[in-house]
Amino acid sequence: MTKFILVLASSVFVLATPIVSVTANAESFPPIENQTVIAECGECHMVFFAEMLPRKSWLRILNSLGNHYGEDASIDSGPLKEIITFHTSRASDVLNIRGAIKWREGLNKGEAPERITTAPRFIRKHADNDFAQMWTKFKVASKADCLACHKGATRGQFDDD
Ligand code: HEC
Ligand code: HEC
After folding, report:
1. 94 part of a folded domain
2. Residue 115: CB within 6 Å of ligand 1?
3. Rounded CA gap, 111 and 56, in Å?
């Protein structure tokens, strides 16, 4: 039995090698370190990546937190200011890193999706059968529940399915 486990473990290692190199090129985002953002925007759902929406979307979302998708998510003006600066400076049409550039593709000038799940890149990436199958298999209730399908979502990794 011990021998069997060892064999299995070594073959997993061999298999894992190419997956690691794919990861280096796949979609990832720098982890969120701003403590105000983590505290205020991580209370009800995972902290979403600012790089996934343009500046105009964030301004609209963050200036109407009193009615946030049907919830009251209002914040005091001090922390709110910091959160607005954080999101607008990392927005898809502001920050020039790979993840942001990918999420600005397909957006018309001035277009401001209301959600990440209605942004063109989200729609394009989740249009196939894999998504439909995972949706049923994991009994997912909302498209916004990234973690149900992407185990590395909070670490900014979306290539793990
Ligand atoms: C009081 C709870 C609560 C807090 C606090 C909160 N949210 Fe939300 N948020 C929600 C709910 C509920 C939804 C809708 C989720 C759904 O449709 O599944 C949502 C959805 C979102 C969406 C859209 C997700 C999609 O469908 O693409 C974004 C973006 C978002 N929140 C950003 C934020 C940010 C930024 C903050 C911090 C300023 C924040 N939220 C704080 C409850 C909250
Ligand atoms: C029901 C399962 C499911 C949910 C929920 C889900 N995804 Fe996905 N996601 C997938 C599948 C399946 C793919 C396609 C993987 C592929 O193309 O290899 C994917 C692909 C992606 C990709 C592209 C990765 C790449 O390297 O091409 C990104 C980015 C992504 N998802 C982000 C999100 C975000 C952000 C959320 C939440 C707002 C989310 N997903 C919610 C299943 C899901």
Report:
1. yes
2. yes
3. 8
* 2 Cα to the center of ligand 1, angstroms: 48
The answer to whether residue 160 sits within a structural domain is no
Q: Which of ligand 2's atoms lies nearest the C-alpha of 135?
A: 1
- Owning domain of residue 101: 2-155
Q: How many domains in the chain?
A: 1
Ligand 1 centre from 65 Cα, in Å?
A: 9
Closest residue by Cα to residue 103 from 141, 158, 61, 154 = 158
Q: How far apart are CA 105 and CA 54, in angstroms?
A: 11
Find out whether 10 and 147 touch, Cβ atoms under 8 Å.
no
**Residues 33-43: pLDDT tens digits?**
999 999 999 99
Q: Does the beta carbon of 134 lie inside 6 Å of ligand 2?
A: yes
pLDDT in tens, 102-117: 999 999 999 999 999 9
